[in-house]
Amino acid sequence: MEIKQAEAAIEAILFAMGDSVELEKIAKAIQQDTETTRKIIGHMMDGYRKKDRGIQIMELDGAYQLCTKQELYPYLIRVARQPKKLALTDVVMETLSIIAYKQPITKLEIEKIRGVKCDHAVNKLVEYNLVKELGRLDAPGRPLLFGTTEEFLRYFGLHSLEDLPSLNPVQIEDFKAEAEEEVQMKMDVEV
């Protein structure tokens, strides 16, 4: 299969599927090895970036998706219903951050870190499809485990979880100290 034909096939696959498609599946479909397929997709991505095109290919944790370029959303909104804007409050963002960095994680573990209940925040994140249930922990009560979704990567413009900013160890210690102070203050108020 020549390159132009492979590119056309990849474009058709990504367009028709709508969601992301794993590299291995694309490679199998075009009968190429994964490294060759990755290079072809990389070339296509460069082409979409250079040209005045309304679409782009996004890489999402080893999978690829054909998407509208974000800067062109105003034109789409004129035609389609305006997409629902996610209301990510500080509480929801804090909960999402904990899940992103600690996944897979249970609600109880999130609550230990935050010091307060997290049911509402986790439910909102699941509703927004930024977080999903990953299974159950093999422990008494078999609590649910939560982790981030491809939509999380897409929403924050990440290719994979490795793209999350690394936390400074000094900042982590400062956060722990602040959290302990807050817990102590709450305990003092309750007494």
Low-confidence stretches: none
Distance between the termini: 75 Å
* Main beta-sheet annotation: 3 strands, antiparallel
In percent, how helical is the residue content? Answer: 55-70%
Structure description:
With 191 residues, this protein is of the alpha+beta class. It is elongated and about 75 Å long. Helix 2 packs across helix 3 (34-50) and helix 5 (90-102) packs across helix 7 (119-127). The relative contact order is 0.09. Helix content is 55%, strand content 13%. The chain has 9 helices and 5 strands; from the N terminus they run H-E-H-H-E-E-H-H-H-H-E-E-H-H. The model has no long low-confidence stretch (mean pLDDT 86). The strands form 2 sheets. It has a 3-stranded antiparallel sheet. A two-stranded antiparallel sheet has the order 4-5. The longest helix has 22 residues, at 169-190.
